[in-house]
Give the backbone structure.
Amino acid sequence: MAKVADGIRYAERVVAGEIVAGEFVRLACQRFLDDLKYGEKRGIYFSEPRAQHILNFYKFVPHVKGALAGQPIELMDWHVFILINIFGFVIPLVNEETGEVVMRSDGSGRPVMVRRFRTAYNEVARKNAKSTLSSGIGLYMTGADSEGGAEVYSAATTRDQARIVFEDAKNMVRKARSTLGRLFDFNKLAIYQEQSASKFEPLSSDANNLDGLNIHCAIIDELHAHKTRDVWDVLETATGARLQSLLFGITTAGFNKEGICYEQRDYAIKVLRGYNSDVEGAVKDDSYFAIIYTLDEGDDPFDETVWQKANPGLGICKRWDDLRRLAKKAKEQVSARVNFFTKKVTSRRNNSATCPDFFSNQMKEKDFFLVRRFCFFWKVLAVFIICVLHCVLQKRVINHMALNKLSDKKLRSLLGRRSERQETIADGNGLSVRVSKYGCVSFVFFYRLAGRETAPIWLTLGKYPDLSLKSAREMRDQCRTWLAEGRDPRIQIKIEREATLQPVTVREALEYWLDNYAMDKRRGAEHIRQCFGKHIYPVIGHVPLSDCSISMWIKCFDKIKKVAPVQAGALLRISKQALKFCRVRKYAISHEIDDLEVCDVGKKSARRSRVLTDDEIRDLWRSINTDYDNHELSYENRIILRFLVVFGCRLSEVLLSSWVEWDFDKKLWRVPADHSKNGREIIRPIPDGMFNWLVTLKKITGNKENVIGFDMRQCTASVTIGKTWKRMKHSEKWTAHDMRRVFATKLSDHGFEHNVVEQLLGHTLGGVAGVYNRSQYMDRKKEAMNWWYDYLNKQISGDSNDSNSYA
């Protein structure tokens, strides 16, 4: 894992000359070291915890491309250096009205600290993991910077360019479901965090549509491609309401000396050269971070020894052999030099360096005359060809433009755009797109069946981009063909869709869901199959799904409701999920029960609050410890209940447990992830007093893999244990799951910490703590388990006073 010390060591090695670096990188490193040493004199402080916080965040960020896709990113030293600069340096917050430092409200007497750098300029050659760095910063600023309602944007000249950083960030969340997936949700248009009302979106360079933003972080990718400073200015002014916003510009080199990139580069150089000197034209700006990886003036771009100046990731994320191949090509092909100089070694050389040799001063006058004649001939020929094509194809081009007015670029710009009213835009020949107020784009076909005397019909063909523009036009042409034949397109489309579906029964549809989804992804899939076989299949299982009306479904559920109202509601929810799965897979279609709710056919299970009294615990524990079968508890129930009472575990964890999960050397029970409800391993210490009983049980069970020594289905065990309260003559019903409530309540009442109790129960911690906190609290869990086991034994020994405190 990356450490702050890695970034500091990188700066020291650059300044010492141990790492090949250009002038501007050396200046950035020297500026960092000087600020680290003398910054406090100017009110600049370095917060190592803040710097380490973002480095810790990156260990949950995975690679999204190439052979390492899915594996955690290992930050390079130059990445670490940039991150600890931007996020490590802080300054006291000053009240602009009074000029006084704002103090924290916790009474500590310390000032409120905010980030020093508000703007960052980073120039580096291609394929040095720029987008990876930017995407991670975007995610961090969205959900891990403790900023409420954070607005983070990835901006570029085109929406496709802006989506590069955004899509990388979205794929990072997709590939890290267990970590980043708990912090963020995403859709096609945004990454968002509901808890803090924050979002991360891509933005195109239409500066007129960027007003009204309240930006916490803006990442401007490929800044050299921006021809004007409009986007930069709009984004920069939109950060004023935030206390520690960040405008992060990242780019390769370019030639445009009139654009915002050249202005920012020139300003960055002035800041780097003037941070500790009074050179003419130098600028002192403590809020501006700059680092420029480029060749120095006079460096030979074809000299391998200087390539690392522009490529800090060379040899790690960028291959030497690839750069050598491109250098060789640039040497031989003059036209390839532009790309090599600007994108591979970030050398801002004059364009004349790439011109053909015959334009050099040494070119002979005769050769120049021949070249001019040759170029003139090709110009005349090109004009002639264009005129011929224009005359021949003019009518076809005009007709095509009249019919096909829309483009994919136009449709992409409409996606997600909010407006006050619905809008319809025509493409031609009856095809249009309907844009909702919330930016949902749908293709519709407008037609009449019998001329203008009949009412117009709007037929929805599908949503964009699920249905492409090309496919929508093909469907339009097919609809026009049907109209010419006197057939209704609406009916024909329905016939075609139904013809592609298999005529399946209710039973076949539910079994399809069970076999293709539930068996792999639903706990208790076999129990669901048994419930279907008992309650649904005998009534409507043989009925074709397309013929099964809502009244038939209600009649079936009403029959279940009479004996098991809660189960009726549960079966409705499962049936709706199963039929939706069949619709999505195009296996069978039915919408009959979509509008039914649980209250229509049954009732929801009530949330239980039953906690056994001390007398009931005493009776139960005494029966569990009886060495012979009695009328209250059978041998099997005594074994299962001992696990439930002592460990507070789930019934399924006991029934599925095998001896390989039990570590007798370390006295631990390790419940594997595939046996736990939340998909994570649960580690529970074995109480000292129960250890010998477990060793004896293992000898009794012999070679059987199952811990309890016998096979019992969960539904059977739940029913038999659920009747124990009657046999023990307790006043109120309790279930196997209520043992977990007793376990948690008693430990919490005795003073054991919330995190300790939750881990013993096998619950996951919520919020950011659940992502970063990986402690097992093993000592405290062992104390809790020993106290609980002693407490149970004291109940039947008659000594209920707790003289030995574990809290």
